[in-house]
Amino acid sequence: GAGVSQSPSNKVTEKGKDVELRCDPISGHTALYWYRQRLGQGLEFLIYFQGNSAPDKSGLPSDRFSAERTGESVSTLTIQRTQQEDSAVYLCASSLSSSEQFFGPGTRLTVL
Amino acid sequence: AQSVSQHNHHVILSEAASLELGCNYSYGGTVNLFWYVQYPGQHLQLLLKYFSGDPLVKGIKGFEAEFIKSKFSFNLRKPSVQWSDTAEYFCAVKGSSNTGKLIFGQGTTLQVKP
C-alpha cells in the first residue's frame, strides 16, 4: 500500500553542512506535518502544510530550518549549517483535513 | 501552552498482566485525544482516538482508553498484555482551535516478558 515515505532513512553529516530531508505523503492528503524526535523524548511539532502553504511554522527551532511543499505532494525540510543538537529522527505525517495523521518511517539525522 | 504528560517512562510487565498507562494534558478548550504505538522497527501507528461522544473508546488489539474531562486525563488500558504488545506508546492531544498539530507526551516504553 502507498503509505507516507521519507528519504533518506539515515543521514550522517558533519557539523556546518546543509541537509535536505524529503517526505512523500499519501496521495490526496492535503495536510502534511513535520515532527522531530530527539533521543528519549516525545515528538516535537515543527511545521504544518495545508496544500503548499504553511499556516503554522511555530515549531521551527531557528531560522536554519525551512520547509517547502510542492502542491499537495512532496515536501522537503532543509536544515542549514547543521549543529549537533539537530541530531534526531525527523518524522513526516499526512492527513485528510484534521483527521488521523499517518506517519512515515522517519529520517535519522546524525550530526558529527 | 498545551502540554501532555505521561507518568510512566518505562513499564515492565509479565504476560497476562493488566496495563494502565497514564496520560494527562493541559488545554482549556475542546480536545481530540490520541494514543499512538510504535512497535520495534515499525512506523508510528494509531491505536485509538477520542473526538467526542462516549468517553470510553476502544482501539485495536484490545486496547481502550477513557477520557475523564474533569481530570484532564486519557489513560490507556488493556486487561491482559501479550509479549507482542512490547512497544513505545505515545499520548497526543490536538486542540480543536489549532491547525491540527499534535502535542505529544514523551512516551512510555512497555516491555512485556513472556
Give the helices and strands, then pairings.
The complex is a heterodimer of chains A (112) and B (114).
Chain A: E1 5-7, E2 10-13, E3 19-24, E4 31-37, E5 43-50, E6 53-56, E7 65-69, E8 75-79, E9 88-95, E10 102-103, E11 107-111
Parallel strand pairs in A: 2-11
Antiparallel strand pairs in A: 1-3, 3-8, 4-5, 4-9, 5-6, 7-8, 9-10, 9-11
Chain B: E1 3-5, E2 10-14, E3 19-21, E4 24-26, E5 31-38, E6 44-50, E7 56-58, E8 64-68, E9 73-78, E10 87-95, E11 103-104, E12 108-113
Parallel strand pairs in B: 2-12
Antiparallel strand pairs in B: 1-4, 3-9, 5-6, 5-10, 7-8, 8-9, 10-11, 10-12
N-to-C series of helices and strands of chain A: EEEEEEEEEEE
Q: What structural class should be given to the helix and strand makeup of chain A?
A: mainly beta
Strand composition percent of chain B: over 45%
How is the quaternary structure best described?
Answer: heterodimer
Percent strand of chain A:
over 45%
Q: Which range best describes the helical content of chain A: under 10%, 10-25%, 25-40%, 40-55%, 55-70% or over 70%?
A: under 10%
Find the count of extended strands of chain A (DSSP E, 2+ residues).
Answer: 11
Report on the biggest sheet of chain B: 6 strands, mixed
What is the typical, i.e. mean, pLDDT of chain A? 93
Backbone CA Rg of chain A: 13 Å
Percent in helix of chain B: under 10%
Radius of gyration of chain B: 14 Å
- Shape descriptor of chain A reads globular
